[in-house]
Amino acid sequence: MDTLIQALINGTALGAQYAMLALGFSLVFGVLGVINLAHGGFYMLGGYFTYSLTSGVGLPFVPALILGVLGVALVGYLVELVLIEPIVDDHEGTLIVSLGFFLVVIAAVTVAYGPEAVPIEFPVSSVLRVGDAYLPVARLIVIAVAALAVLILWMVLFRTRHGVALRALAENREVASIQGLRPRVYFPVAVALSAGLAALAGGLVLPIFTLEPPVAEVALMTSFIIVVLGGLGSLLGAAVAALAVGLVEAIGGAYLDGSTTKLLLFSGVLLLLLLRPSGIAGRSVRDA
Amino acid sequence: MHVRRQSVRNTAATAAAVMALSALVACGGSTSSAGAACLDGKVKIGALLPLSGPAAGFGQGTHQAMQFAVAEANDAGGIDVGGETCDVELVDYDTKGTAEQASTGMNKLISQGTKIVWGPQLSQEVTSVQQIAQRNKVLFVHSSYAVNGLSPEMPLVFAMATTASSFAGPMADWVSTTYPDVSKVAIVIPDNQGGQDTAKIDKEAYSDAGIEAEVSAFPEGTADFAPFIGRLLRSGPGIIDVASTPPGDAAVIIKQLRQAGFDGPIGRIGGEATSAIIKAVGSAEGLGEFFYYAALDVNSEPIKTYFAQFEKKFDKEPLPVSAQVLPVARLLLRAIDEADSTDAEEVAEVLENMEIDDPTMGTAVWGGEDFYGIDHEFIVDFFAGRYRDGELTLTPLDATDG
């Protein structure tokens, strides 16, 4: 029973982390119609920006994390404005450009920080014990921050004028443009929001695990699988799929050896997509 | 709407294709065609290594060793090939730690006329290039612990570092003496060929030393090891050996084990990566009681001299693993020079008969016949490293005696 409790908490923490990653990925697809392969790079940059601000500048962790998130959001804004915007309707072009940016970022980080993991620590290392289960407080913080971030994203999208504008552009760009909403203004904002969410996940979670360049590829792959599973462009689907993947990984990992859990997970994804090709929940931001 | 849905589907399909393609993309090497011998005063040697990806720390360190050896050789006037004196030039290919890229890279290097290759690194890479290299009579020097990494049927293949088959036995004996109360060890490995090969060797070594060993594998690409660690601890091991787990993953496992309350010894009878692990853990104190196969003493004068020379030459600190494989990098260039050729068979014949007395790592031997059936493994004495409260002690152990 203790094992199951621990697996459920680990799974929820994993799911929360995946949700932050996948929501941003899904948001960009929903609003711009772009599959942004740079997303894993934003996650990794969140970790490295936070690291630089704590170890280089000497800031405490929380301000460093906030500044790191804002910094990566700015990078995301510029990436959209400079690289994606000129070819935003060219699906293949945006894929190639975002992949190119992703590879450049990984190479740049490897040159700047080296190929090995850098020393970064989460400021809270205490552990709660429930029976034989141990619950690192850091994980509970990840769950809380992720829940807060998702709530804020929901409020931004559904309770603010700019959120309505973003959803209108996702719904029908031509009509929204006729109404005076300018994609050139809102598209970079969507990518900045997405990059900021990924950076928050990276800055928060990587100090708990490890911060090295390969994490970007794992994050990109995980985001992509979750978003496909949840339904391209659906925020609700992405959140549900993220939690489901986190729980399957944690519960499977607690009981099964080697790659069996991955096999189960991918078999499940394959089966679901065979039965429901559009994923768990629909297509676009407006359905969230 | 239909058009948009179709477009979405096309885009998703293209994205999947691009992501799959991206997994196959690697930084290519020089595109100039080079002959096997001296061309325009240069002889080219392939460097087929994981310069990016999870094993990049190992790959870049191994690359640095050859870079340094090449610089030494060129500074000394070059090497003789086919009666000409040539500068040595490295042609790099990044395998990203994957079997597909390793085989693609080997083919590319061969198409450029390269007959001597430094690398690859990982077991799955070595397995993937063996047939290609053998068919094309290419000599390659790898640093994997693959149980099929050397054999009499592959006389052109050498191991640049002492492998687990040579150091696991003495290390397991040291473990049983140092921790006499421990009767059970859990060997933690990534679920791939390299992990399985190391686990097989380590398990046998522990068993011979009277310690029961159980292997636990985790899937590659794991970020959060908490579920795995819960399962691991339920089996009640006295020692946990992270074997050949990549340093970044090993660091997370160590951090999470200590967080979960495991206060027994954690070890690493696998590739030397302690400095990278300490960096990722945050401090040597964070390791707790920790032991490892120490290929070298980084505080010894010859090693410090090499580090200083490297830094002066390349304006950056070398990765410690580079010192470990530097002797064979030097030997390989000397063998080409003495053979006066880049013909793989001629170079192999010279190389396997060379006496080894390296200015950085000292005396060593070509061995490995007992395990691999051929003396193509570089074997040098080593240390059992032990951290307690952040303090390191090194106990010399013998590997060259057999």
Key phrases:
heterodimer, A: mainly alpha, two-stranded antiparallel ribbon, 11 helices, 2 strands, 74% helix, globular, disordered C terminus, B: 402 residues, Rossmann fold
As a percent range, the share of helical residues of chain A equals over 70%
- Name the beta content range of chain B: 15-25%
CATH architecture of chain A: Orthogonal Bundle
**What value does the Rg of chain A take, in angstroms?**
19 Å
Low-pLDDT regions of chain B: 1-5, 21-36
Q: What oligomerization state is this entry in?
A: heterodimer
Give the strand content of chain A.
Answer: under 5%
Compute the number of helices of chain A.
11
- Terminal CA distance of chain B reads 74 Å
Query: Helix coverage percent of residues of chain B?
Result: 40-55%
Please explain how this structure is put together.
Chain A has 288 residues and is mostly helical. Chain A has one domain (2-275): ABC transporter involved in vitamin B12 uptake, BtuC. Helices cover 74% and strands 3% of the residues of chain A. Chain A has helices at 2-32, 39-56, 61-84, 91-113, 137-159, 161-171, 173-178, 183-205, 215-230, 235-255, 260-275, and strands at residues 127-130, 133-136. Chain A has a two-stranded antiparallel sheet with strand order 1-2. In chain A, helix 1 runs antiparallel to helix 8 (183-205) and helix 1 (2-32) runs antiparallel to helix 10 (235-255). Chain A is globular. The model of chain A is unreliable at 284-288 (pLDDT under 50). By secondary structure, chain B is α/β, with parallel strands linked by helices. Chain B has 2 domains: 12-162 and 299-380, 3-Layer(aba) Sandwich (Rossmann fold), CATH 3.40.50.2300; 164-294, Rossmann fold, CATH 3.40.50.2300. Helix content of chain B is 44%, strand content 21%. Chain B has helices at 2-24, 56-75, 99-111, 123-135, 164-178, 193-208, 226-234, 247-259, 274-281, 301-314, 321-339, 344-352, 369-372; strands at 42-49, 79-81, 84-94, 116-118, 139-142, 157-159, 184-190, 212-218, 239-241, 266-268, 290-294, 356-358, 362-367, 377-379, 382-388, 391-397. Chain B has a 7-stranded mixed beta sheet, with helices on one face. In chain B, strands 2-3-1-4-5-6 form a 6-stranded mixed beta sheet, sandwiched between helices. In chain B, helix 2 (56-75) crosses helix 11, helix 8 packs across helix 9 (274-281) and helix 11 (321-339) crosses helix 12. Chain B is globular, with a radius of gyration of 22 Å. The termini of chain B are far apart. The chains are: A mainly alpha (288), B alpha/beta (402). The interface between A and B is large, with 63 and 52 residues.
